[in-house]
C-alpha cells in the first residue's frame, strides 16, 4: 500500500478547512450583526424619543403652559419628570423665537436654543439631526408645537446623548465577541471530531492510498459488459461481478471458486500463468463448464511488483450474436449486389444489340424493361412509402428471381414511411431473416412462392410472410425462436432468435402458423410510428 507523501494529513486538512470556513462565517456574521445592531440601537432610541416627543406635542397642558405660563415652574417640573422617567439627555420647550422655556439646567431657561437645527421645526416641519449643544453632542429630534386651534406656538426638542448610544453599542459588541469566541471554539472541536470520524470511515487511509485502490478497481472494470474476476498474489478472489457468475453458470459458485480443492480454475482462466510470468494474455479461448469463453488476463502491479491478476471474459456465442445483429446491413448489401448484377446483365444485352445493329429489337427490349420497371417497381413504391424497406424488398424480389422464386407483395398492402430510423433497421432485420428462411424452405419445391402483406392501422403494423414450402414439424414450433435451435444442422438457429429479439426491442410480437407440405405463415405485429403523423 502506498504511503502518503503530502505534508498535511487528511485529518489536518479537513480540520483546517472547516475551521477556516467557520472563521469566515463567524467574521461575516459578526460584521453584519454589529452593523445591524448599531443601526437598530440608534433607531430604537430615536423611536423612543419620537414617542415621548409626539406625546408632549399633543398634550394640552404643555401648549397651555407655554402660552399662558400660569405657573412659572409647572412646565419645567413636568418636562423634567418626563425626561428623567425616559432617561433622555434633555427636553426643551421653546417658543416661536427659539427661546427656551424648559431645560435640565435652569440657568439656561430664557436663553436661545443652540444648534441651528430648530429652524426647520419652527417652520412646521419635524427634523432629526446630530448637533453640538450646551450639554454636548446629541441626537436631536425637534417637532413643532400647536395650540388647540392648530396654530404653531413653538417647538419641542428631545435629545439623546451620543455617548449613551456608544455605550449600548459597546455592550452589544462584547456580546458578539463572546459569541464569536464560543462559536470558533465549538467549530474547531466539531471540525476535529468530524475529520476523525471521516478518517475512521475511510479505514484510516489517506487519499493517496484510496487512489491506489481506485486504480485497481478501474482496471478490473475496464469493460462493464464482461465477466470480471480479480485475485491477489495467493490466488484468492478479491472481486467477482455478477456477469462472471452468470457466465460461469455453476450452482455452487462459492465452492467452485473459493475452496482449496478447486485450485484448477485459475489455471483454466490463465491467472496462475499471469501471476507467475507477469505477462498479459489476450484474446484466448477456453472451455469452462461447457461454455466457450473469450478471455483477457492482465497482471496487477503496485510499485512495480505483481500483486494480483485480473481476467475479463465474454461468452463467445454472445459475440457471435452481436456479429449476427449486423445481418440487416448484409441484407442491404445483398440487395445492392443483386441489383448491380441485374443491371450489368441488361447493359451487356444492350451492348450486344448495339454491336449487331439490331436497333429495332433494342428499342423493344428497352421499352419492355421500362414497362417492367413501371409495372413492378412503380407499384412497389406506391405501396411501400419507406424507401429503405422498398429498396430492400426490391432486392429480395431480384434475389428470388435468380433462385426461381416468385416474391410478391399483395396489392392491398400499404406501409408508410417510419419516423424512427431504429424501427426501419429492426424491421429490415425481421423481414430479412424471415425471407431467408422462407427461401431456404422453398428449395426444391415446385412453383415456389413467397407473399408479403403489410397492413398499417393507427400506429400498429401487421406484416405477414407466407410461403408454400415444406412447413415445420408441429413439435418444433414451440422451439424455433430459441437461440441455437435449428432443423437445418449445427451452428444454425440464430435468424429467428434475432427476429424475436428485434421485436421484443420494439415491443412487438410474432406468431407462426405452419402445416407440413403446405407452407408456413409468420405474422408479425409491432408498434410503428408513421412519419406523416409525427409531423
Task: Give a quick precis of the structure.
With 535 residues, this protein is an alpha+beta fold.
Plain-language structure description:
This protein is α+β, with helices and mostly antiparallel strands and 535 residues long. The protein folds into 3 domains: 1-205, PAS domain (Beta-Lactamase, 2-Layer Sandwich), CATH 3.30.450.20; 222-316, PAS domain (Beta-Lactamase, 2-Layer Sandwich), CATH 3.30.450; 325-534, 2-Layer Sandwich (Heat Shock Protein 90), CATH 3.30.565. It has helices at 10-57, 60-68, 74-85, 119-122, 162-201, 207-220, 242-248, 253-258, 264-268, 271-277, 316-324, 327-355, 359-383, 387-403, 421-441, 495-506, 531-534, and strands at residues 90-95, 127-133, 136-146, 152-161, 227-232, 237-240, 281-288, 291-302, 305-315, 406-409, 449-457, 460-467, 509-515, 519-527. It has a 5-stranded antiparallel beta sheet, sandwiched between helices. The chain has a 5-stranded mixed beta sheet with strand order 10-11-12-14-13. Helix 1 runs antiparallel to helix 5, helix 12 crosses helix 14 (387-403) and helix 14 packs parallel to helix 15. The two termini are 61 Å apart.
Mean of residue pLDDT values: 77
Global Rg:
50 Å
* CATH topological fold name of the largest domain: Heat Shock Protein 90
- Unreliable segments (pLDDT under 50, ≥5 consecutive)? 1-6, 251-263
Structural class: alpha+beta
* DSSP summary, beta strand count: 14
Q: Topology, please?
A:
Blueprint: H1 10-57, H2 60-68, H3 74-85, E1 90-95, H4 119-122, E2 127-133, E3 136-146, E4 152-161, H5 162-201, H6 207-220, E5 227-232, E6 237-240, H7 242-248, H8 253-258, H9 264-268, H10 271-277, E7 281-288, E8 291-302, E9 305-315, H11 316-324, H12 327-355, H13 359-383, H14 387-403, E10 406-409, H15 421-441, E11 449-457, E12 460-467, H16 495-506, E13 509-515, E14 519-527, H17 531-534
Parallel strand pairs: 10-11
Antiparallel strand pairs: 1-4, 2-3, 3-4, 5-6, 5-9, 7-8, 8-9, 11-12, 12-14, 13-14
Amino acid at each position: 500500500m502506498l504511503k502518503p507523501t503530502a505534508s498535511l494529513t487528511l485529518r489536518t486538512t479537513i480540520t483546517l478547512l472547516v475551521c477556516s470556513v467557520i472563521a469566515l462565517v463567524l467574521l461575516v456574521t459578526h460584521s453584519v450583526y454589529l452593523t445591524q445592531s448599531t443601526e437598530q440601537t440608534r433607531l430604537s432610541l430615536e423611536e423612543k424619543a419620537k414617542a415621548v416627543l409626539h406625546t408632549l406635542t399633543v398634550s394640552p397642558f404643555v401648549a397651555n403652559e407655554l402660552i399662558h405660563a400660569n405657573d412659572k415652574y409647572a412646565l419645567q417640573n413636568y418636562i423634567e419628570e418626563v425626561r428623567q422617567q425616559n432617561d433622555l439627555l434633555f427636553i426643551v420647550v421653546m417658543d416661536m423665537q427659539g427661546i427656551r422655556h424648559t431645560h435640565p439646567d435652569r440657568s439656561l431657561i430664557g436663553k436661545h436654543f443652540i444648534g441651528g437645527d430648530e429652524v426647520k421645526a419652527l417652520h412646521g416641519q419635524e427634523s432629526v439631526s446630530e448637533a453640538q449643544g450646551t450639554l454636548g453632542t446629541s441626537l436631536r429630534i425637534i417637532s413643532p408645537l400647536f395650540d388647540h386651534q392648530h396654530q404653531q406656538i413653538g417647538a419641542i426638542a428631545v435629545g439623546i446623548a451620543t455617548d449613551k448610544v456608544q455605550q449600548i453599542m459597546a455592550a452589544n459588541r462584547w456580546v458578539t465577541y463572546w459569541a464569536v469566541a464560543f462559536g470558533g471554539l465549538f467549530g474547531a472541536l466539531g471540525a476535529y471530531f468530524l475529520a476523525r470520524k471521516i478518517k475512521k470511515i475511510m479505514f484510516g487511509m489517506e487519499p493517496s492510498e484510496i487512489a491506489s485502490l481506485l486504480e485497481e478497481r478501474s482496471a478490473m472494470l475496464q469493460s462493464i459488459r464482461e465477466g470480471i474476476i480479480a485475485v491477489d498474489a495467493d490466488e484468492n478472489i478479491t472481486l467477482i461481478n455478477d456477469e462472471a457468475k452468470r457466465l460461469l453458470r455453476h450452482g455452487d459458485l462459492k465452492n467452485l471458486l473459493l475452496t482449496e480443492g478447486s485450485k484448477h480454475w485459475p489455471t483454466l482462466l490463465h491467472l496462475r500463468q499471469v501471476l507467475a510470468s507477469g505477462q498479459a494474455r489476450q484474446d484466448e479461448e477456453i472451455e469452462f463448464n461447457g461454455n466457450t469463453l473469450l478471455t483477457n488476463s492482465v497482471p496487477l502491479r503496485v510499485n512495480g511488483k505483481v500483486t494480483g491478476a485480473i481476467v475479463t471474459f465474454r461468452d463467445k456465442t454472445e459475440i457471435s450474436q452481436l456479429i449476427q445483429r449486423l445481418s440487416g446491413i448484409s441484407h442491404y448489401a445483398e440487395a445492392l449486389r443483386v441489383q448491380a448484377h441485374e443491371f450489368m446483365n441488361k447493359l451487356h444485352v444492350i451492348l450486344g444489340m448495339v454491336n449487331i445493329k439490331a436497333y429495332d429489337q433494342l428499342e423493344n427490349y428497352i421499352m419492355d424493361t421500362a414497362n417492367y420497371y413501371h409495372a413492378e417497381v412503380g407499384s412497389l413504391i406506391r405501396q411501400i412509402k419507406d424507401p429503405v424497406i422498398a429498396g430492400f424488398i426490391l432486392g429480395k424480389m431480384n434475389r428470388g428471381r435468380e433462385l426461381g422464386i416468385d416474391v410478391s407483395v399483395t396489392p392491398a398492402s400499404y406501409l408508410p414511411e417510419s419516423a424512427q430510423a431504429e424501427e426501419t433497421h429492426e424491421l429490415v432485420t425481421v423481414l430479412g431473416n424471415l425471407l431467408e428462411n422462407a427461401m431456404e424452405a422453398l428449395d426444391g419445391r415446385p412453383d415456389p412462392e413467397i407473399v408479403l402483406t403489410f397492413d398499417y392501422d393507427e400506429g400498429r403494423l401487421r406484416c405477414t410472410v407466407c410461403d408454400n414450402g415444406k412447413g415445420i414439424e408441429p413439435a418444433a414450433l414451440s422451439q424455433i425462436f430459441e437461440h441455437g435451435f435449428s432443423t437445418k444442422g449445427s451452428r444454425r438457429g440464430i435468424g429467428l432468435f434475432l427476429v424475436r429479439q428485434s421485436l421484443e426491442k420494439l415491443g412487438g410480437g410474432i406468431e407462426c402458423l405452419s402445416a407440413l407440405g403446405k407452407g408456413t405463415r409468420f405474422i408479425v405485429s409491432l408498434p410503428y410510428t408513421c412519419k406523416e403523423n409525427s409531423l
